[in-house]
């Protein structure tokens, strides 16, 4: 399966990356990582790219890393549709001090607007 | 994350303990959560209708309920509603990393729509003020109009209208 993982620098997006790498190894998925500008994240794009490259360098396969500028949700969807990805993968939200799941704005936009199947990693 | 707290101080609230008769004629006691109440609260959440869960809480299995409750009761402020010796409602304030407090409230289905939520929230905010809590926030699913109306009535205002869930905030002190 061709996976497109969107990553905007929140902790749940890095967790999604780790789990997706593990799954890709088991299932033989092809993975593309798209670094997006997440307005809710304090981590800048360069720093995210570095962390992504570090995580991927330990993986036994090659994955393409791209940087998308502009509105993160719509840019991800546009890329997924244009290039025919089978699935978009995103972090499934952070948890509040009380343990409530808080869905990020990118995940919300992608879920509500995608034609591509979406996986949220918990 | 920035959050706009109301400038106005909310309240006044009556701190627990106190008792009242709910809209269904049941005698309900409100009091602060204490260490000896842990098992009774586990029992309440074990009986909790999964359809009334919100944003992933409360957890459903007893072991997850215990783990979750331990994380809340360590440094939070809690208030219980009791009827006939059993816990029927629980409201809690838990500190975030900025020193503000997140609020959640759960009432067993058979005790909903009887004014217990209003009583519990008022008691929790009264207990919170006594404990030195200054700023409180919560998130609520946007479709949950009864809950949003209750939070407004008790002194919360919308603080972030862009997020997936509605965020609301109240100020207890300057």
How is this structure best described in words?
Chain A is built from four helices and seven strands; from the N terminus they run βαβαβαβββαβ. By secondary structure, chain A is an alpha/beta fold. In chain A, helix 1 links the parallel strand 1 and strand 2. The model of chain A has no long low-confidence stretch (mean pLDDT 95). By secondary structure, chain B is α+β, with helices and mostly antiparallel strands. Chain B has a single domain, classed as Aminopeptidase (3-Layer(aba) Sandwich), CATH 3.40.630. In chain B, 26% of the residues lie in helices and 29% in strands. Chain B has an eight-stranded mixed beta sheet, sandwiched between helices. In chain B, a hairpin with a 5-residue loop joins strand 7 and strand 8. Chain B starts with 17 loop residues before the first strand and ends with a strand. The mean pLDDT of chain B is 94. The chains are: A alpha/beta (122), B alpha+beta (174). The interface between A and B is medium-sized, with 13 and 22 residues.
């Amino acid at each position: 399966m061709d996976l497109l993982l969107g990553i905007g620098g929140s902790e749940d997006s890095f967790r999604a990356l780790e789990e997706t790498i593990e799954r890709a190894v088991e299932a033989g998925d092809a993975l593309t990582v798209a670094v997006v500008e997440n307005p809710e994240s304090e981590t800048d794009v360069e720093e995210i790219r570095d962390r992504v490259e570090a995580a991927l360098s330990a993986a036994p396969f090659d994955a393409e890393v791209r940087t998308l500028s502009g509105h993160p949700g719509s840019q991800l969807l546009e890329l997924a549709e244009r290039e025919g990805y089978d699935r978009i993968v995103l972090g499934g939200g952070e948890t509040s001090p009380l343990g409530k799941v808080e869905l990020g704005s990118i995940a919300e936009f992608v879920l509500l607007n995608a034609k591509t199947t979406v996986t949220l990693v918990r | 994350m920035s959050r706009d707290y109301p400038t106005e101080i909310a309240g006044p609230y009556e701190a627990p303990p106190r008792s009242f008769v709910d809209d269904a004629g049941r005698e309900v006691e409100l009091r602060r959560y204490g260490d000896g109440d842990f098992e009774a609260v586990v029992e309440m959440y074990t009986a909790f209708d999964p359809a009334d869960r919100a944003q992933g809480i409360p957890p459903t299995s007893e072991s997850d309920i215990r783990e979750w409750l331990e994380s809340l009761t360590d440094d939070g402020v809690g208030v219980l509603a009791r009827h006939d010796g059993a816990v029927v409602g629980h409201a809690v304030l838990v500190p975030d990393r900025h020193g503000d407090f997140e609020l959640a409230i759960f009432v067993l289905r058979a005790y909903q729509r009887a004014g217990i939520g209003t009583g519990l929230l008022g008691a929790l905010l009264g207990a919170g003020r006594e404990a030195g809590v200054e700023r409180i926030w919560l998130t609520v699913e946007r479709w949950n109009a009864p809950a949003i109306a209750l939070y407004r009535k008790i002194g919360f205002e919308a603080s972030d209208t862009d997020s997936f869930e509605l965020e609301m905030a109240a100020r207890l002190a300057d």
